[in-house]
User: What shape does this take?
Amino acid sequence: MIVLVLNSGSSSLKTALADTSGAGRIVGRASAERIGEPGADYSSHEDAFLAALDTLQCQADVRAVGHRFVHGGERFREAVVIDDAVEAEIRTLIPLAPLHMPHHLKGYAAARRLLPGRPNVAVFDTAFHATIPPEHHLYAIPPRYHDDHGIRRYGFHGTSHRYVTGRYAALRGGAPEEFRLITCHLGNGASVTAVDRGRSIDTSMGFTPLEGLVMGTRSGDLDPAVVLYLIRDCGMQPDAVDALLNRESGLAGVSGLSNDMRTLCQAADAGHAGARLAVAMFCYRARKYIGAYLAALNGADGVVFTGGIGENAAGIREGICGGLDALGIRLDPDANRAAAGTEALISRPDSPVEVRVIPTQEELVIARDTAQTTYGLR
Ligand code: ADP
Assistant: This one.
């Protein structure tokens, strides 16, 4: 079955055409950037969508459209066909992800108009984490803040963590229910998840994607009193603190150089002090989370690296796993160095915990969920 997958952002529209038969594969892609900006090629998401349909020449073949939605709140625990009632429920979640959800809905509106009669399915980044139990997903504040305001840890990147979980099991010739895994999605945004026999039981991102690891431009974990101090004692406005922590921190902020890990690895090798510090902080934070999740899972069968950094940056994988041999994680240096952008086993044969690189395929998961949700097809 042919499914069109849409990832609609504030000024971008990424589309992928998937054939879900067999193991499934992506058969075409088209994307537009800077939508609506001065001098851009497209003035609206609908224009960009029309151009993508033209590029992909798929109008007649597409049987359903799958949409990436960052946030499913507590309501959406799995993919769902979007109708008016579902759309209204999705709208109530806009305050939880105001920078993403309205733009996802623009993609949905464009698909409804330009591909009439085709079912649209919402696939949520949070859904895989719906299994995280309350003692792991609640913050230790009075429950009314959860009950009245939805304040809890939701987790993100779920589609990616779910894909690599399934793929890891397939590579081991088993089912996800047989393994305890720590999955590391390391890209511009980054998160680590503890997967207990196929179910997410903890993840490093929280109420928003700001919590957890050091990221391209996000600070990750931080004492919340720092925020109060910046506002009360340093005279910063809340919006400025938001910009500081989400856009001016992380690898970019610490290094003073770049949010791009490839640039930082090169600069660190050349002796740039800021780049070295940023890389060291990135690796240390990831190592701490892996250690925490080894405790949460009472040991793990495997650690998986994915995302642009996880798939390609051997030095970072080494920096993260290098100090974990006492916990049963022993990298094979040659296999690690050789692994770039393809599936690879990178731990030594005697390593109690297997370490693998598995390139993520979020679009394929969205396409499969869409086929499954609409027609019960794979
Ligand atoms: P996004 O979260 O935007 O989807 P990606 O998953 O594509 O991001 O990851 C982007 C990150 O991956 C960037 O920091 C980039 O520098 C890094 N990256 C890609 N290839 C390499 C490499 N060979 N070495 C180090 N970092 C790399």
Summary: The pocket of adenosine-5'-diphosphate is lined by residues 187-189, 216, 260-262, 265, 307-309, 312-313 (CB under 6 Å). The domain at 175-357 is CATH 3.30.420.40 (Nucleotidyltransferase; domain 5).
